């Protein structure tokens, strides 16, 4: 019969439970929760095999902590190499990978923003009339192609695409972004700098060192001030197109930083 051993086991368990019950009652209220120590003291023989397994689980716990720390570091995008920009790029890459992984089925959580961004995206085909120029980045000449973004102004290819996408998104919200001054040649920057030195022009960077000469800065001519709807829109949205207002006091100056 199969029942017999089960029954006898149950009886044995009953006995085991029954036996210490008087001892348990004698213990303080918290004692029943300290089952480990109670079991160990009640069954000293089982201590030998228990100890190594405790060591093993301690090691496993430590290993797990390390893994968690490593993943946390990876998720942040290995720090210390590129500063915030590097971390941001890492986050962007992670975001893109996430988007890819979600594949064809539309991801609800990201949904609205991602779709909106996609709709505003500007393809290579939409850029035309590019010209090859010599730009300057940190005083060093650099060959680049700049494209028109309206109003006779130009930006470096990637910045031009991003700016047009931003213009498109702004338009949907009833905001006009009018290009005032984009890419500048060395001659143009020299003139502006001289005017600044003469006291007849705005603050201008030393020739060779302006973001405008790198083809990534745009002065938006119709912002009108820090309190305007246009500025508010830029403050809330420019970043997602890669543009930041990086000159204090110049609400019109937006630099593409990607
Ligand atoms: Zn500017």
For this entry, give a set of tags.
258 residues; alpha+beta; Muramoyl-pentapeptide Carboxypeptidase, domain 2; 4-stranded antiparallel sheet; 8 helices; 7 strands; 50% helix; globular; disordered N terminus; binds zinc ion
Write the layout of secondary structure elements.
Elements: H1 3-26, H2 35-42, H3 47-76, H4 83-102, H5 111-120, E1 131-137, E2 140-150, E3 153-156, H6 157-172, E4 179-181, H7 186-198, E5 217-220, H8 229-237, E6 243-244, E7 253-256
The structure holds zinc ion (ZN).
What composes the largest sheet?
4 strands, antiparallel
Order of helices and strands: HHHHHEEEHEHEHEE
How many strand segments?
A: 7
Low-confidence stretches: 1-52, 76-115
Distance N to C terminus: 77 Å
* CATH level 3 topology of one domain: Muramoyl-pentapeptide Carboxypeptidase, domain 2
Could you report the average pLDDT, rounded to the nearest whole number? 72
CATH arch. level architecture of one domain: 2-Layer Sandwich
Quickly count the helices.
Answer: 8
How do the strands line up in the largest sheet? 4-5-7-6
Mass-distribution shape: globular
Q: Could you say which structural class the secondary elements and strand pairing correspond to?
A: alpha+beta
Q: Determine and state the CATH class of one domain.
A: Alpha Beta
- The proportion of strand residues reads 5-15%
Radius of gyration: 34 Å
Listed once per kind, the bound small molecules are:
zinc ion
Helix content: 40-55%
């Amino acid at each position: 019969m199969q029942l017999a051993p089960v029954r006898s086991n149950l009886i044995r368990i009953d006995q085991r439970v029954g036996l210490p019950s008087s001892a348990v009652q004698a213990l303080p209220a918290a004692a029943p929760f300290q089952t480990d120590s109670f079991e160990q003291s009640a069954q000293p023989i089982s201590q030998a095999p228990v100890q190594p397994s405790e060591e093993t689980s301690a090691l496993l716990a430590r290993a797990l902590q390390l893994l968690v720390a490593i993943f946390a570091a990876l998720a942040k995008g290995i720090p210390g190499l590129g500063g915030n920009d590097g971390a941001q790029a890492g986050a962007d890459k992670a975001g893109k990978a996430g988007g890819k992984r979600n594949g064809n089925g539309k991801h609800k959580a990201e949904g609205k923003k991602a779709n909106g961004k996609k709709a505003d995206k500007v393809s290579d085909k939409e850029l035309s009339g590019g010209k090859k120029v010599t730009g300057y980045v940190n005083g060093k000449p650099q060959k680049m192609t700049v494209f028109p973004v309206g109003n006779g102004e130009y930006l470096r290819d990637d910045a031009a695409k991003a700016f047009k996408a931003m213009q498109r998104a702004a338009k949907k919200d009833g905001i006009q972004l009018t290009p005032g001054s984009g890419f500048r040649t060395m001659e143009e920057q020299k003139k502006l700098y001289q005017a600044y030195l003469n006291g007849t022009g705005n603050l201008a960077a030393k020739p060779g060192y302006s973001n405008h000469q790198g083809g990534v800065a745009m002065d938006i001519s119709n912002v009108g001030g820090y309190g305007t709807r246009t500025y508010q829109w830029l403050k809330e949205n420019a970043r997602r197109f890669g543009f930041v207002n990086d000159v204090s006091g110049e609400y019109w100056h937006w630099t593409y930083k990607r």
